[in-house]
């Protein structure tokens, strides 16, 4: 009878552990791919359990980044019993689709990415060697390389738009206590919005300023 209760307890514990591992893997994929839609996720253990497994508790779950790039992979799960640790390995199989952007025409290098250049499509998740971009990147990024029609757009294809180029004249704002002073200044390097760069007010006056738009900067020192 005692053996039956022990077997029952282990079975319940394994089910609970599997559910926790499944949720962890599910959440990891959705965080990595916000536009992913998971249809099914199967978790299977392939390591042997220790004979005294009933005395172990799940401590940590880990999935390597490379395993988040493919539909099949493995998960490492650490169980502890007092000061003893035991790693058990699980396989996962993921059935999912991902919403991506596909070039609907050839896109020249340097061209700003806009919604008329791409189609929004859903593809089966298999092996993603490069992270696909999302609608968020439209109008904020440009083509880093020439992109042929039909290509799925990934981070390797794009670079952030330059808001200001070296030599551009901008309006700088300097706050000193309750006094606000604005003055024309020259950008001394290319910059994106949010970058901190050196600007020149005149031949002898230089400041560090944060770019806040394509025409304005906030002096920070």
Describe this structure in words.
The chain is mainly β. It folds into three domains: 2-96, no CATH class; 97-160, Antifreeze-like/N-acetylneuraminic acid synthase C-terminal domain (Type Iii Antifreeze Protein Isoform Hplc 12); 169-219, SH3 type barrels. The protein is built from one helix and twelve strands, in the order H-E-E-E-E-E-E-E-E-E-E-E-E. The strands form three sheets. Strands 1, 2, 3, 4 and 5 form a five-stranded antiparallel beta sheet that branches. A hairpin with a 2-residue loop joins strand 10 (196-202) and strand 11. The longest helix is centred in the N-terminal third of the chain and has 31 residues, at 2-32. It is elongated. The N and C termini lie far apart (77 Å). Residues 1-10 have low confidence and may be disordered.
List the helices and strands and how they pair.
Blueprint: H1 2-32, E1 36-45, E2 57-62, E3 72-81, E4 84-103, E5 118-124, E6 141-143, E7 158-160, E8 169-176, E9 179-187, E10 196-202, E11 205-211, E12 216-219
Q: How many β-strands, per DSSP? A: 12
The best one-word shape is elongated
Biggest sheet details: 5 strands, antiparallel
Poorly predicted ranges: 1-10
Structural class label: mainly beta
Tell me the radius of gyration.
27 Å
Helicity, as a percent range: 10-25%
The string of secondary-structure elements, in order, is HEEEEEEEEEEEE
N- to C-terminal distance: 77 Å
Q: Can you give the mean pLDDT? A: 87
In total, how many domains does the architecture comprise?
3
- Counted by DSSP, the helix tally is 1
Proportion of β residues?
Answer: 35-45%
């Amino acid at each position: 009878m005692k053996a039956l209760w022990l077997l029952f307890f282990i079975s319940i514990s394994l089910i609970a552990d599997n559910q926790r591992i499944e949720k962890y893997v599910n959440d990891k994929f959705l965080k990595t791919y916000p536009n992913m839609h998971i249809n099914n996720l199967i978790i299977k253990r392939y390591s042997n359990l220790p004979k005294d497994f009933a005395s172990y508790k799940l401590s940590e779950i880990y999935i390597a980044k490379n395993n988040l790039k493919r539909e099949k992979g493995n998960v490492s799960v650490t169980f502890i019993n007092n000061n003893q640790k035991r790693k058990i390995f699980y396989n996962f199989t993921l059935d999912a689709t991902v919403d991506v952007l596909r070039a609907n025409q050839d896109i020249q290098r340097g061209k700003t990415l806009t919604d008329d250049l791409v189609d929004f499509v859903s593809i089966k998740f298999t092996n993603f060697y490069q992270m696909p971009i999302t609608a968020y990147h439209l109008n904020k990024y440009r083509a880093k390389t020439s992109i042929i029609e039909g290509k799925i757009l990934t981070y390797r294809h794009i670079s952030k738009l330059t808001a200001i180029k070296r030599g551009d004249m901008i309006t700088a704002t300097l706050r000193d206590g309750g006094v606000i002073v604005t003055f024309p200044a020259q950008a001394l390097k290319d910059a994106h919005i949010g970058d901190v760069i050196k600007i020149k007010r005149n031949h002898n006056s230089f400041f560090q300023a944060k770019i806040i738009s394509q025409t304005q900067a906030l002096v920070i020192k």
